[in-house]
Amino acid sequence: MRVVLSGLPFCGKSTVFKALVGKEVQPKKAASGKVQLNIGTLELKDQRLDKLAQILGSEKVTHPKINLIDVAQVAEATAKGMDTTHIRDFDVLALVLAVFSSKDPKQDLRDIESDLILSDTQLVHNRVERIHKERKARPQKEEDQELLLVERCREVLEKEQMLKTLELKPDELKMLAGFQFLTLKPMVLMANVSEGQLNKEEFKDLEKAAQEKGMLFFSICAKLEAEIEELPEEERPEFLNSMGLAQLSGEGFIETCFQARDDIFFFTVVGKEARAWPIGRGTQAVHAAGSVHTDMERGFIRAEVVNYKDFIECGSFTNAKEKGLLRLEGKEYIVQDGDIINFKFSV
Fold first, then answer.
1. Which stretches of 81-185 are DSSP H helices?
2. What pTM did the predictor assign?
3. Taking the CA of residue 277 as centre, how many other CA atoms within 13 Å lie in the half-sphere pointing to its CB?
4. Which of 75, 83, 217, 265 shows the smallest number of beta carbons within 10 Å?
5. CA–CA dist 108, 11 (Å, integer)
């Protein structure tokens, strides 16, 4: 999963990046060559997978990962608005809000929303003009389904609403996928707070405003956590405890990003490797197999499935089978969170 950090100038997103990644990374140039990308890898430690690996003696444990991307502002970016030029190719948009310095965080949120809507509006206008030019060159008798859909998008954006307010069907979402509309992306609003604002209830209204816009809410004191990351690991727990923090924010942030996409996890144990795989809620077994390898989807025969909770109660696959909890499922089976699956396929 690719998660990009963005926000208004001086929101502290580079500090947020440092706090979450916990180490210096070598910047990379974007494909355009105009901006620098800081890319860090974060791993979600799923205790269920660790327990499964321990029981089965797996030598290798592969947890889900996300790539966190901090896009350096381009030189020509305005001092007031958010640069959206280089942030379309990603899975989740993490919007950093400078609560620590803002007089009105909810107004900042409205400004961010306006920038996202404006960016998508320009994209829609360009596409509509292009379609009309193509139709003049090659007149069509039937209605252009893409044009009708894009016009619907334009109407919503011109009302200053995000495209996620549209009730789009799966085939319509597929038709729009190539546009990489920002206001259709899963979003996490990250409140970057000060030390004095930690563990306070004063941002309930901001959290509610985020939820009303279809965003998940997450708070972090990036400056403090970036400093803690520089401490020796054995000294961190005591410092965290003194600040009233249970742990650093990295783990919770990763979980929130997967929640923003409404992902669940299934597990595979192949050879000496136990691995967790994120998939969208409601995914059929045949497509889950494809997330492991395209050959598994193409040659899918069946899936042997036992849920993690049942496996732990039974203690082994043999016991689970004897109790009828290890099941054979077909292509259309809807994978559940915590399923342990062995895919049978032939190509």
1. 105-137, 145-158, 170-176
2. 0.87
3. 24
4. 75
5. 10
Residues 6+ apart with CB under 8 A from 6: 13, 71, 82, 83, 84, 87, 93, 94, 95, 96
Residue 31 has pLDDT above 80, yes or no: no
Strand duo 215-220 + 187-192: pairing: parallel
Whether 232 contacts 163, CB under 8 Å = no
Distance CA 68, CA 18 (A): 10
The pLDDT tens digits for 278-337 are 999 999 999 999 999 999 999 999 999 999 999 999 999 999 999 999 999 999 999 999
Is-contact 97 10, C-beta < 8 A? no
A 10 A CB-CB count for 40 gives: 19
| Nearest residue to 87 via CA among 105, 76, 72, 103 | 72
Which DSSP string corresponds to 40-60? Answer: EEEE---HHHHHHHHHHT-SE
- String of b and e for 297-321 (b: at least 16 CB within 10 Å)? beebebbbbbbbebbeebeebeebe
Provide the token pair at 178.
Answer: 């190539």
- Report residue 166 CA to chain centroid gap: 20
Residue 31, number of CB atoms within 10 A of its CB: 9
| Of 174, 185, 253, 251, nearest in space to 214 by CA | 185
Q: What is the pLDDT of residues 206-244, one digit of tens each?
A: 999 999 999 999 999 999 999 888 888 888 888 888 887
CB atoms within 10 A of CB 206: 20
> How much is the average pLDDT of 115-135?
89
One-letter amino acid for residue 70 of the chain: D
